[in-house]
Amino acid sequence: MRYAAGWRSRVALGVPAGLALLLLVVPLVALLLRADWARIPSDLATPTVLPALRLSLTTTSVTAVLCLLLGTPLAWFLARSDHRATSWVRALLTVPLVLPPVVGGVALLMTWGRNGVIGQHLTPFGIQIPFTTVAVVLAETFVAMPYYVLAVEGAMRGLDPRLESVARTLGASDLRYLRTVGIPLVLPGIASGLALAWARALGEFGATITFAGNFQGRTQTLPLLVYVELERDPQVAISISIMLLAVSVLVLGVLRGRWLR
Amino acid sequence: MTPPGLRRDGLDARVRLSRGAIEVDVALTAEPGQVIGILGPNGGGKTSTVLALAGVLPLAAGHVEVGGRLWDDGRRRLAPEQRQVGLMLADSLLFPHLRALDNVAFGPRSRGVPRQQARQRARAELERVGLADRESARPGELSSGQQARVALARALATDPALLLLDEPLAALDPDTRARTRSDLAARLAAYDGVTVLVTHDPLDALTLADHLVFVEDGKVSQTGTPADVLSEPRSAYVGTVVGLNLYAGQGDSHGHVRTADGGLIVTTSPTEGPVWATVPPSAVSLHLHEPEGSPRNAWRLRISAVTMQGQSARVGLVGGVPLTAEVTLESVTALGLQVGHDVWAAVKATEVRTYPR
After folding, report:
1. A7-39: string of b/e by CB count within 10 Å (b at 16+)?
2. pLDDT single digits (tens) B239-289
3. Residues A79-106: pLDDT tens digits?
4. CATH tag, B245-356
5. Which residue in B has a C-alpha nearest to residue A171's C-alpha?
6. Chain B: nearest CA to A199, how far in angstroms?
7. Is residue A4 in a domain?
8. A180 touches chain B (CB under 8 A)
9. DSSP3 helix / strand / coil % (chain A, rounded to 5)
10. Fold of domain B11-236
């Protein structure tokens, strides 16, 4: 049953609610209004765009594959464990979610840099990670993996644990259970986890520019190019932004019904 | 009681483990081909016992030996996938993304049987439960009764030495349950391993099991054949299950039984010392005034509940000798039986059975 609201409370609640909506929607509309739609095709054909697009697609794809191959087993361990340490691991996983990406970039430099915790052992072999395409992938994986693991873990926790008991009495090892039952049943969760992680990787800026730099063709991804073009040719920046916006909306479409109601 | 290790085939187990507040300690032995029915109130340790037999729960102590092989001795245990065990639970728990055939073939495939052979075996098992024509159906397309039969076929497709059925019919509606029960009985008759059937439905236990084990608060309260248990229940729960009024008391040679609550029951079949006394609900007659004639039991009791059951009514009575009486609907109306009223309950002394406690 709904009560007729008095005009007082309607104003007291409606005004801030409307303001919140405006704060979120107006920038998106502004972007669309300022776009020069006729120019978009030629803007996207600018010599700087193609390498950035290609780099963004390859690094985010590699990131997605890394999430799938490494994140799925981690999600499985987290999902089936009731150990106290598990909640600590999960808490650690959420840190990259809330960490300022620039700080993530600095942390990655301290890890993989010339004198970094791991990097110092790679330097003698002539292996340099920072400011390479590999660094872009590492930065993207650092920020995106948590989204994937948490999404897939949630899906795996939703499975009836008795399914696993039955599968094991039928003779299935952990690996076989996961391959033939566990993963097929959480495919929707894996799909939405991948979409989330991929979208996060595509938008990655702070950690990348700190850890991988901004070298055209090597580490300059689309978001970095937007930043550069904003100074040189704002219209190109807007065109790329429109493309990224379209991709984001597409990802939302993939997630629809899973994460959004 | 067979000492552990002597029985060369069949099941010999003593399951000891803690589950929440309950200390489970249940001993089970069975010959191949036998069906052991485990009954008991919910939360009493039935399912924990089954899961320990399957290897899903570890034993704290005790042992599980099947077909002469030690599966668990409280220290070393075989993982579920290393045991020759079949498990079927209340919700059939079929793999929802696999066809019926692949559900049944899952076990053989997991045990290294080549695909074609596994499918052949699965087809044979589906045929035995009457589902040969539904092999391509996914679980969602099957009725609950069909799902239960596929789950049974799946559990048997690996030739388990021990088949565990935990409330296999509980999730079915009454019609389907009756039909599936007879399908299950037919299939179990052809199975030569040991079956452990957990249920809280007395009908399942009486129609499917050769031997009953009652588990209450983690302990075995009574074991015996269905006939034994029906005639001589030895705990309040078992009394309820078999539908008898059951009293613990002290008997003397004159046929008097004094119950713990101070009630007096008269019987024509005296047993001396600590005894159980049973009164069938159908042997109780209710009266508004004190009935005449002897030797009879007549107690003034208060009505605590009246429920209908088909053409008769069950009347719950509290007082010195708490009773459930089964009377006709006519007497309910004729006597004006209502909750809170006092009535006389009479039982012939010949209807009271006693046996040593």
Report:
1. eeeeeeeeeeeeeeeeeeeeeeeeeeeebeeee
2. 888 889 999 888 888 888 998 888 888 888 888 889 999 999 999 989 888
3. 988 888 888 998 998 899 899 999 999 9
4. 2.40.50.100
5. B81
6. 29
7. no
8. yes
9. 80, 0, 20
10. Rossmann fold (3.40.50)
